[in-house]
Amino acid sequence: MCYESDKIFLDKQKRYLFQRNLINKYKKTLLLMKVNYPGDNRNNHITISIIKCMDAIITELFNNEIYLKIFRITAEGPIITILLNMDAIKAKKTCVEIENKHMLGKCIDMDICSADFKSIKRSDFGYEKRKCFICNSLVKSCIENKVHSEYEVIEEIRKMYVAYMDRYYGNSLI
What we know:
Blueprint (H helix, E strand, L loop, with lengths): L3 H23 L2 E7 L9 H18 L3 E9 L2 E8 L3 H14 L6 E6 L5 E2 L18 H6 L5 H20 L5
């Protein structure tokens, strides 16, 4: 029997190979965007809606630089993979600004890999490590110490999504 957490782990491995193959074939900067959503049910109305909202923003910002865009639903949740005709450092700086400033930015991860498959980190540019959107401590510390329950994290993501939808569309559709 394959448990959902096993499927998530297997899909992470498949995604890594998929990314490597794309970069090897096209020699482009790769942007990977996914929702920071805990638990086994990562494909739901909220995660799909968040990724679609953020996809529209990413597409608008990187429009002239997008070489290829792929949307996939996996056990990890909805994932958008984009190959960019731009420098990986410039792409990462833009992504960090979105993660830090957009209403839904705390709900997503945007990873950047250069054309030589080097992962570009926020710390490479002196940006602070990501903070927890519940308590403002370092995310890594909260995850490692299991400070927040899965329910608490999911509820906070839901609240951010509802606030975003109410602000820009007049209702949350939930």
